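Quick start: what a row looks like.
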Amino acid sequence: MSVGQSVSAMVAVAVAFWQTIGRGVRAVKWRSVALFLSALVPFGLLINVMPLGTLYAIGLLIGLLTVYLGWSYYVVERAPQYGDLFGARALAVGLVGYVAVIVYLGWLVPSPIALVHLGAVVLIFIYYWFIAFIAFFHDQIGRSKYEPEPPYPSVTVLIPAYNEEGYIGRTIQSLLDADYPTDSLEILAIDDGSTDGTFAEANAYAAAFERVSVVTKANGGKYSALNYGLLFAGGDVIVTVDADSIIDYDALKNIVAPFAAAEEIGAVASNVTIWNRNSLVTRCQQLEYTIGVNIYRRALDYFGIVMVVPGCLGAYRREVLEEVFAYDPDTLTEDFDVTMKVLRSGYRVSVSDARVYTEAPATWRDLYSQRLRWYRGNYMTIIKHWSVVTDPSYGYLNRIALPFRLVEMFFLPLASFVVLAYIGWLVASGHVLTVLAVLVFFTSIVFLIAALGIQIEGEDWRLLVYAPLLVIGYKQFHDALNLKCLLDVLRDRDLGWTRAARIEQQPASTPEEPSAD
């Protein structure tokens, strides 16, 4: 090779190198990077004003949890034979020992308020720099690692419905309009003993379209409607859609994509978006979904332990549902319960880019009714599957998902009111500036998490106005309701199904031909 040819080759390599660097730089979502790193400011200010002893205590606890998470990853991925070592139970013992050490060293004054305050600060550190970081990283490398590609599996969509007149028609219409091969899709509405025009409304679509069918049964609850529908389902993939929800045009293709990519995936979750955002209550719920549900699911997706496949849009391998004996009657949250059963059977549960639009409760009373069922059902499900907490053979479910969920369900609601009592005492004692500093810190972190979630999910930036309510107001409503539901379940009261009122209970329009777009 001549000198000229060598120089040309070197120039070509250099150009290709810098073109690759340029593409990489252009691919970075710099707004997300800026939002994520801006949290260094409030965290830095907090660290700057904290006593050294408290910083040492926080650092030691974060170090303990980092070792636990690192060890958990190593055990699950590389050395399952060591699964009995340093598991969730050992972590609980270690935390008790940790408290004893920091009290002995004088880093913490032994009081409930001091422990709760320390726990709250550590949790906000972990949530931001672990869970939010994974979601941020997820966004940087691409929203989904699963791309829909033909051939597409045969799908049966189950729509359980009880008194859904005015809703079920447009749910069916959105499924007919979806971008999915018509010869691989069947839509089955299950009328669970409705007393209104639900059956007639769904039957009008069944009469107009061959791939739509309707069955009816005596009222027995959502779980029984889904089980009944399975008897008539012929698809390899079972998709469930609530009768008040509308799926996106490409939702079906997106929600089945993970099944083709990995055989160990047994169920797939969707992203939930609220369509009726015309009140303070519904806007707060959308912000809650954005940062507390969708972001959290994307973090758990990396470990294959998404804990809830939402009933408004979820997908399961048919054989997996059959293996776990489908839906059970012993909780009020059949979606959480069946997801736990799938995870316990050794399957992964992932999240997709499938999007569903659902109606949220529009008043505080209706929100109370909805969450009464959700929170009671959550505690029922956790108690039902309590053995997972103590059995290290469940891998990430035992080591990561359940510990986080237990803290969220049992510690945070109680801690919220302990902190409020402490704030009240500080205000009464004249420490107003201290209270303001604490509120500014927590509000700024929630604000940044909300902004990051909005950026990642492509949501409405006006939702940021409601971020402070996720610190004071809206949060305490849910915390109080959580504690009430925990007591209800522990007292084993007769806990029935509670349901929010529907906004639009009116007949739907005549069935239309699916759009060609």
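That is the whole record. Confidence is low (pLDDT under 50) at residues 16-25, 506-510, 513-517. The first strand starts at residue 155 and ends at 161.
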